[in-house]
Amino acid sequence: MSSLSILFATSEMAPWVKTGGLGDVAAALPAALRKAGHDIRVLLPAYPALKQAFPTATTVAELPAFAPGLPISRLLAAQAGKLELLLLDCPELYDRPGNPYLDVTGHDWPDNARRFGLLSRVAARLGQPDSPLGWQPDIVHANDWQTALAPAYLHYQGGAASVVTVHNIAFQGCFGRDMLAALGLPEHAWRFDGVEYHDQLSFLKAGLQLASQISTVSPTYAREVQDEHFGYGLAPLLRHRSAELRGILNGVDTDLWNPATDPALVTGYAANRLAAKRANKAALQTEMGLEVTADRPLFGVISRLTSQKGLDLLLTVAEGLPELPAQLVVLGSGDKLMEAGFVELAKRFPGQIVVKIGFDEGLAHRIEAGADCFVMPSRFEPCGLNQMYSLRYGTPPIVRATGGLADTVVDVCEDTLADKSANGFVLDGDTPHALWLTIEHVCRTWQDKKLWQRIQQNGMRRDFSWTHAANEYVALYRDAIATRA
Ligand code: ADP
To answer: Which of 10, 49, 103, 382 qualifies as a cystine partner to 26, CB 3.0-4.6 A?
Structure first.
């Protein structure tokens, strides 16, 4: 089959700018598609971290002001390994410290509509016949609300087929009606089947309405978002477009997340060399100021601390852990009340519960390797990466049966142990009590070292590489091109 040219538009990309799963996907999926022989370029804002990382990036296009609310900008090209990056340089919009979406006080940047309107507009512009690069993709792949206006521009102004991928439907990018003209969208786009959504301009709704094809990051999530409870208002639209909607489970970066070669660990290990995992547990206990002991299971959390992740359930029951006995290490940041709750908890149980507020990539690796069990009782989880990292690191996760968690974690029971699929623990319900019962179950199971090892190995053997997902994306792109035609 012929190879495709693809523009992958994103608002974040690991390792330079990452707030969550999208950053990881934006690094790994284009790399996998490149490896499969496709001509893919990644478009993202030239944030300070990218300008620093690529000081020799060269200007490949000067772009005009596309609309009254959009400043002039330029495109820089940079080579990241084998991958070509297109950095959208507009200091007025992107030359800011810290988080790509929020200011230092944790509020949305007030001009996010313009910041990501421009990103979407430029993505679409590159997908048009007279692309300023002299390179025109067959497909513009938008991701989440920040680039979801690209399919709308392509719809109204003509150009390549488009795909929008929903990494998290809870964030939709809704702005005032005045943004319609400011961003250069035509008046007739203000319709229920255009970009209008409850009298607002919704970036994500526009993309879901107008993209050639839609995907979410797991099959279960693709079904869930069609349900009122998970759809955040967009379920009816997604049901209407269900023929063009599919779920493709994310892979993980198996080089970066490989317990055998991970440079962040004190010692590597593998499914057939699990004993070495113990040294990582001891090292983690030492690093974090936990009592160094092999006799208590160590539960780990790496997460945004928000109600989405269900960690309020853990906060409610965690004071029972030291008595079980078990230990807990939490790495995360987010909701200030939840942060304070975990910090307070750690103060009450020194040596048994420890919390680090912040973002720390190296520590995240050491927790995956050093913990015995990972806790991720999300209320919803489009795909989730940490449960897959946990499975790879022989750290069976506790999850709720939602989204990508349901597609990757198989609850331990007689049948699943017999067919060697059991790899973790699935909560029965969404209450603190349900979580507590599962924690107790984990502790009992963990005591049976042989059984525990079988569960670890089942998880470690599963293939989470991107190769499979990349093939599914190629099929999605081909369907998008057919739909557009
Ligand atoms: P989400 O995208 O909803 O935040 P995912 O599980 O899909 O959740 O992806 C989270 C990614 O961010 C993972 O790579 C995880 O390791 C990382 N991560 C989250 N919080 C932290 C943190 N405090 N420190 C380091 N890495 C973190």
So the answer is: 10
Distance, CA 56 to ligand 1 centroid (Å)? 30
Q: Kindly report the backbone phi and psi dihedral angles of residue 105, in degrees, each rounded to the nearest multiple of 5, phi listed first.
A: -85, 0
302 CA to middle of ligand 1, Å? 7
What b-and-e string marks burial along 396-430, b requiring 16 or more CB atoms within 10 Å of the CB?
bbbbbebbbbbbbbbbbeeebeeeeebbbbbbeee
Cα-to-centroid distance, 384 and ligand 1 (Å): 8
Q: How many domains does the chain have?
A: 2
Mean pLDDT of 278-287: 98
Domain that holds residue 296: 274-460
The model carries a pTM of 0.91
Instruction: Choose which residue among 385, 390, 393, 399 to substitute to test ligand 1 binding: the one with the highest number of ligand atoms within 8 A of its C-beta.
Output: 385
At 98 the pLDDT is 82
CATH of the domain at 368: 3.40.50.2000
**Residues 302-325 pLDDT 10s:** 999 998 999 999 999 999 999 999
